[in-house]
Amino acid sequence: MKTKTALVSIVVAALLLPRAVLAQALIDGQVTKIDGSAGKITIKHGPIKKFDMDDGMTMVFRAQDPAMLKAVKAGDKIKFDADKINGQFTVTKIEKAK
Ligand SMILES: [Cu+2]
């Protein structure tokens, strides 16, 4: 009986873990350029597994909300999240790295 309970716990933990990891996994980056009027930001970023970017690179992202670009400036180290929205790599969350 105890073994069965332990097994169920392990299965539940295994099911919950990937969601928790995904929710917390912000990407490390550094802002190299901001184009506020176009709502675009250039970020030098580390690997992004969900986009099959195994190496870091510098690339342009669209900002989901242009207002979020006011919180950062070129040179800032950041943590951010991004999604592919309408075929464009889009920053959905951005915060200054501590
Ligand atoms: Cu990239």
Overall SS class: alpha+beta
Order of helices and strands: HEEEEE
- Quote the average pLDDT: 89
What is the name of the CATH class? Mainly Beta
Widest beta sheet: strand line-up: 1-2-3-5-4
Compute the number of helices: 1
Uncertain residue segments: none
Specify the helix fraction band: 10-25%
CATH architectural group: Beta Barrel
Distance between the termini: 47 Å
Radius of gyration: 18 Å
Bound molecules: copper (II) ion
- The CATH topology corresponds to OB fold (Dihydrolipoamide Acetyltransferase, E2P)
In CATH, the homologous superfamily goes by the name Copper binding periplasmic protein CusF
Shape: elongated
Protein model, in words:
The protein has 98 residues and is α+β, with helices and mostly antiparallel strands. It has a single domain, classed as Copper binding periplasmic protein CusF (OB fold (Dihydrolipoamide Acetyltransferase, E2P), Beta Barrel), CATH 2.40.50. Helices cover 23% and strands 41% of the residues. It has 1 helix and 5 strands; from the N terminus they run H-E-E-E-E-E. It has one helix at residues 2-24; strands at 27-35, 40-45, 57-63, 77-85, 88-96. It has a 5-stranded mixed β-barrel with strand order 1-2-3-5-4. The longest helix is centred in the first third of the chain and has 23 residues, at 2-24. The radius of gyration is 18 Å and the shape is elongated. Bound molecules: copper (II) ion. Copper (II) ion binds at residues 45, 53, 57, 59. Copper (II) ion is lined by residues 45, 53, 57, 59.
